[in-house]
Amino acid sequence: MKVFNLTFVRSLSHVCSLKPYKDTKWLMPNGNPTGIYVYNCIANQRVPVILNDPHIATWYSCGPTVYESAHIGHASCYVKLDIIQRILKSFFNIKIVSAMGITDIDDKIIKKGLESKTHFTNIAKQYEHEFWLDMASLNVAKPLIITRVSEHINSIEKFIQRLIDNNMAYVSKNGSVYFDTDKFSNYGKLQKMQDSGEPSDDEKRNKMDFALWKSHKPEEPYWDTPWGKGRPGWHIECSAMVSKVFGSQLDIHAGGVDLQFPHHENEEAQSCAYHNIRQWANYWIHVGHLNVIGDTKMSKSLQNTISIPDLLKSYNADTFRMACLLTNYRYSMEFSNQLMETAESVLNKFKFFITDATIYINNNATSVSAVYSDHILKNLQKTEEANFEALKVDFDTATCINNLLTLLSDTNKIIKSDPCEYCPVPVTLIVEYIVDILTKFGLKLQESEDTVLSNAMINTIVEFRHSVRLNAISSKNYELLSACDIVRDKMKSMKVQINDSHKTPSWVITK
Fold first, then answer.
1. Does domain 6-333 have CATH number 3.40.50.620?
2. Where do the tRNA synthetases class I catalytic domain residues begin and end (predicted)?
């Protein structure tokens, strides 16, 4: 196993030279092409992913501002980013050195602390703890490195001081510090320049200038600096923490699309100015919003949120992750019961197939000799190749799922053919492939732990019902068939879905 350290990773960035990409402001790194193409908001097109080391990528995600509970809008962002990281690691053999920033000093946290007469640090710790529990419940891998603003005040102060010394920032009369956007010619790189910005005041030279440091207000926490008492602005926090961990260049910076401007724009500007470089983050990955019906963004301010524990009362983590896999990470996803039911239906198709295929593979009653079907193996090979290509083009998981469903459907025709064509070897390989790829996407494919009946008892009921149903079909006893349907529906209400489409009964746990 290759051993590396962050000093080595950091030093590689100085070897990598940059060149313009098709007359845009994005600069293509010199290094090792991975074969992956990802959409880049600066180039406004897909661009090749090139790394200094073809098997190591530095990755920073903007984490939560911990003043309230996370909701499923946050969940969709972090689940989709988790899927992308898993793809890079599992399919392309890229080690991800991941970091996430936690904003634990912020206006909203301070306000909540004052209103509840609780120290702001306790507010932040409470909601950060809750956030990690929520992420674990969704099977989102925890980053290797966690940076908290409260633990990096010294780094932030030094970062700001260098910008002041380099004449890229100025101290206002009240002791606040602003980044001077007029001094940075590439401001507006990530998003077309807008006539907007942080609220104007008499302290700012330009409307687009943004606060690096906010002067002290009564009753608010503060830190002493050479330019006065106060606390850091939001944008400077990520830049300082990333620079502390990864140095002067970062491979991938990720977050929600709402952070593209002004947060990520400001990060890129102040980081380039600080390090005196042309490009700080080589790749920006932005996840689309989770909308409620009517194309409205789910947000705390609109009071239209659903908490993660509330979601998991109705649907399990695999179902939510499948919904994320069925949509493109870059675009908005409209949350609805219909979306979740579709995701659950797709998930159940895979569960039923795995169960049916396992029964088929272990069929001791068949008198047919096994055959080695080239047709099935070719379908498997085509699917493997098509899925790998789809993942190389901006992590197209929706196409992968559709390809798997096609493979599943074609294989089901063999499994359920009459007379049965017995092909245990290729069917086994297909089951292993489907389980492998879904597991690599982060699905657990496990039954719910809250089911009341044990597997043995469910098997007994399902097999008994199956025998009764076959006799009812044979004798055309419609009253008995109706009773079997009632048992099926009752079992479904208890989260056990029965599949009658095969000679041998099968069942899966739902939701």
1. yes
2. 56-344
